[in-house]
Fold this sequence. Notes:
Elements: E1 7-17, E2 25-30, E3 52-55, H1 56-63, E4 71-75, H2 83-95, E5 99-103, H3 108-113, H4 117-124, E6 128-131, E7 152-155, H5 156-162
The structure holds iron/sulfur cluster.
Iron/sulfur cluster (SF4) binds at residues 33, 35-37, 40, 42, 45, 76-78, 105, 133-134.
Amino acid sequence: xxxxxxxxxxxxxxxxxVVDGPGLxxxxxxxxxxxHCPGCHNPETWDPQGGEKLSLDEVWRRLRYNPLLSGVxxxxxxxxxxxxxxLALAKKVRAAGGNVMIYTGYTWEEVQAFSLPAVKELLAxxxxxxxxxxxxxxxxxxxxxRGSANQRIIDVQxxxxxxxxxxWAGKEDGRDGLATTGGAxx
Length: 186
Ligand code: SF4
């Protein structure tokens, strides 16, 4: 089914990355971020009118998704500022057999307070979520998949199932910890 009615404001797409989550991943950089963290590496993504407005189908085409990929990482920018677009993209990733990882400047607790159904649905399809703003004072160059020590890599499905925060227990080079990736894969 065509997805011409769903559009995303996108800063860029990387077809293959090994530094934005476990395994080989495609990365979508969402355009627009309200957090404005001092020391942000991508300040060009802050303007919600910047980047490109693309249909979901065009984003997918640029991803060149293939079975060698573990999944897609939603980075930014702030993916949760476009919950409907992020949800539609997550559904495509899951339908292709991939897992979804999201970087957000909101803390997990703040995300939980969102009342938008699209955010709840998105979390149900998300394997990993890196939460919280980049904090320059807590910057550490050797942290796995995150920039500052306040940020957590959260195992979303275990956290939802156990109703308490569960951090990812996986390894950098594998799919460890993602076996319980939830959602219907639709
Ligand atoms: S949340 Fe991320 S993209 Fe947004 S300002 Fe902070 S570091 Fe930059």
